[in-house]
Design a protein that fits this description.
Number of helices: 5
Shape: globular
Helix content: over 70%
Structural class: mainly alpha
Largest sheet: none
Number of strands: 0
Distance between the termini: 51 Å
Radius of gyration: 17 Å
Low-confidence stretches: 2-20
Order of helices and strands: HHHHH
Amino acid sequence: MRWAALVLFAAVLAVAPARAEPGDAYSALIYDHEVAAQCGLLTPRVRQAFHAARDRLAARSGLAAAHLKKLRLKAIVAADREYNNRGLGGYRQWCAGEGRGGVTRILRAADET
């Protein structure tokens, strides 16, 4: 009986909507930028889009500069760890998928006003 209750509770948590934190989009953008950088996918257009989106998200978040710095560092470390987890040659598929996806998200975020 306890297992059934635990399974039900886990299922409810899995489908419950998560409350977005003010820095979530900011952190995701930083992560995408770091992945794109590590994959050699940064072009002048992507850099410009990143800076515009980053500045806009930082301003909209209402978070203090110190908190944004913590979010930025966590995102950079997460991207670096993920890159290191890929092993010899494994980063190629990661870059083709997550790296190119990150570039697309950066460009899209810059277009959102």
